[in-house]
Design goal:
- The structure is a homodimer of 391-residue chains.
- The first copy, chain A, is α/β, with parallel strands linked by helices.
- Chain A folds into 2 domains: 10-31 and 284-390, Alpha-Beta Complex (Aspartate Aminotransferase, domain 1), CATH 3.90.1150.10; 38-282, Type I PLP-dependent aspartate aminotransferase-like (Major domain) (Aspartate Aminotransferase, domain 2, 3-Layer(aba) Sandwich), CATH 3.40.640.
- The first copy, chain A, has 12 helices and 16 strands.
- Chain A has a 7-stranded mixed sheet with strand order 1-11-10-7-6-2-3, sandwiched between helices.
- In chain A, α5 links the parallel β2 and β3 (119-123).
């Protein structure tokens, strides 16, 4: 069998490595696990008849999220997109503003900017964390903006750059402290998109609690799920109160009158979904331990495969390892589609990263920084089966 | 006890009449009832692990809604506000347009217009159905607009009046056919807000299926609930397809690629909520029968109380009697707050109608027609306990 001249089949090597950890397919990319009090809380919710916009599970879920993340306040909302939308509004983003976003992100981040009639301004990421590159961003802003009247002005468009929304990609915490320094120096608000990073910390502090506000998602593919759901985190109690108000139709409290004092949103998380969330949150420490163990097993399985490696949490930062991520060497980038085909054909669900936001038709004319790293990452990233139930 | 000179206490008479039908409080205004397959379907949903944005209950709920209403297509969404927002966008409402709305409506209708950067233009209602008054609207449009290039132009603002959104108040069907004629004659799109009127029909045809699109709500206080939820109804399959696309982030179907072709919305109804909806919809005929029986009992109880009457479905139209509604005679309008206080103090939850939209600060400068009837109705309407479980 010593056929040294057989060409390497990286795709099949990767199929075998994944199978050696998680067994044969079919396996989803990320499945939720319901082995705690989900059933009990759902039943309790149904029996109470309070399944909708008010109820004790909403209050409890908000309290539990604040306790887990260390945020002073958490506001449960209908999904992560809604959380981003409201956070941007409360950060003062208005029509005609620009908002700095990673080009490498899920569509929700860019859509939320569009809902504010603002324009995304795409920037590059760093290879290590896959997140917004603070160093490149500082260079970009230094050479293309100036401060006028306390606002950061994009010299080519004349627009105010009001906010930035770094996103902790696949749960890996980015260099939030360096980005906060850039935000401070250039008078830009910072909203943290922590949709994927529940359980991820930087220097022991939970992602999503560094910026003015942070956002979480509990979609079905996330580390914990409420069916659909999200949350806003903030340490500013006044902002938290505002967020609760405008996500609940901006109704003024009264025994019976229906008066609303501004254009608000119906972004409430139903109590039914919050009930599921309370049960899921109880199990989060276990899920996180399992996901870390899965990462370690994958790391062993891939140790000897040349040309591909797993993305690892940066030193001093703790990843929730939401989605396990393979990174092909640049010289193997042309194998990406073969790997995707072979793994999916074998019933092991994998996927590439999202199309870069600047390539989408509706954002193709949006301003952007040079994007060499994300253009490289786009060709090389592959997510592999990551459910906590796989170990 | 023949104290003929004792002043009448209308509030106490109303408390007694309500109690004679529904017993002593505490009673909510409207509570959901879960006595069917809610439990079974929720468990099945949880066991499948498909609790989120895809799953068989979403598909089934959409099919069941289409079958029940007779609409060619139903698209389940996260709530009624989202349904309105997307319907307006698909009707072509854009920034700077005006949209005709009843001043007497829930805030969602007006907020949805604001989300499109359009301006509500408030019009009057008729006493009989509490809905948009087609006759008054025709007079108003005839004297204040003109047709230019196929568009209805408001002569005082110069803006295009792009759409109208009549709302079937408390489930009572309005005169949709007369409004369709006005919409046709003035080149205005018609979106039906049927959030409150699931089960209500006009000439045997379900409300929400007459206009270009119709919207439903399954909030916790509605005839059936999904926790939070809504739907878009349409007989235009092409529009239905568009609605599904932009309520599900406008993602293009692909085995693994994430490409979106326009700014879309995360307005999907989670499968968990759809599971509840499927079970609720099975029981809808029973709920409707119970609500009608409750109406008849209230009608008897109030028959001999001078100065107040129940709102009755107009001839030829069938109401779901979602919220039972008292209408005080104009000469007793000054008793409204005493009635609200006495009933709520007795644990019988009642409430007045919403503050008229044109009185809210954010809409106070919006264009409006003369509003004599809704100003009168606002002083005289009271909703009383209406749960289907009360009979």
């Amino acid at each position: 069998m010593n056929r040294m001249d057989t060409p390497r089949n990286l795709a099949q090597e990767i199929v075998r490595a994944i199978s050696s950890v998680v067994g044969a397919g079919p396996l989803a990319l990320h499945e939720p696990r319901f082995r705690g009090n989900e059933w009990i809380y759902l039943k309790e919710c149904l029996d109470s008849t309070f399944v909708s916009s008010v109820g004790k599970f909403v209050d409890r879920f908000e309290d539990d999220l604040a306790a887990f993340t260390g945020a002073k306040r958490a506001i449960a909302v209908v999904n992560g997109t809604a959380a981003l939308h409201v956070s941007l509004l409360l950060a003062g983003v208005t029509a005609g503003d620009e908002v700095l976003l990673p080009a490498l992100t899920f569509i929700a981040t860019a859509n939320a900017v569009a809902y504010c009639q603002a324009t995304p301004h795409f920037v590059d990421s760093e290879e290590r964390s896959l997140g917004m590159d603070a160093h490149a961003l500082r260079d970009h802003l230094s050479s293309t903006t100036e401060l006028r009247g306390g606002h950061c002005i994009n010299l080519s468009t004349g627009r105010v750059i009001r906010a930035m929304v770094p996103m902790h990609t696949f749960g890996h915490p980015l260099d939030i402290e360096a980005l906060l320094a850039v935000a401070h120096d250039f008078h830009i608000q910072l909203i943290e998109d922590a949709a994927e990073s529940l359980g991820s910390t930087v220097g022991g502090r939970h992602t999503g609690t560094f910026g003015l506000m942070g956002t979480l998602s509990f979609n079905g593919n996330k580390t914990i799920t409420t069916g659909g759901g999200g949350a806003i985190l903030t340490n500013d109690l006044e902002l938290g109160k505002r967020a609760k108000h405008i996500t609940t139709t901006a109704k003024l409290p009264h025994r019976w009158n229906f008066v609303h004092d501004e254009v608000g949103y119906n972004y409430r998380l139903p109590n039914l979904n919050a009930a599921l969330g309370c049960a899921q949150l109880e199990q989060l420490p276990g899920f996180l331990a399992d996901k870390r163990r899965l990462f370690e097993r994958y790391q062993s399985a891939f140790a000897d495969i040349e040309g591909v490696r797993l993305v690892v949490e940066p030193v001093g930062r703790h990843s929730n390892y939401w989605l396990q991520t393979l990174l092909l060497d640049e010289s193997f980038a042309d194998q990406r589609d073969a790997v995707l085909t072979a793994t999916n054909d074998a019933g092991l669900m994998t996927r590439p990263v999202w199309a870069l936001m600047n390539r989408l038709s509706m954002f193709s004319s949006a301003p952007k920084a040079p994007l060499p790293m994300v253009e490289s990452l786009e060709r090389r990233l592959i997510n592999i089966p990551s459910s906590s139930g796989l170990v």
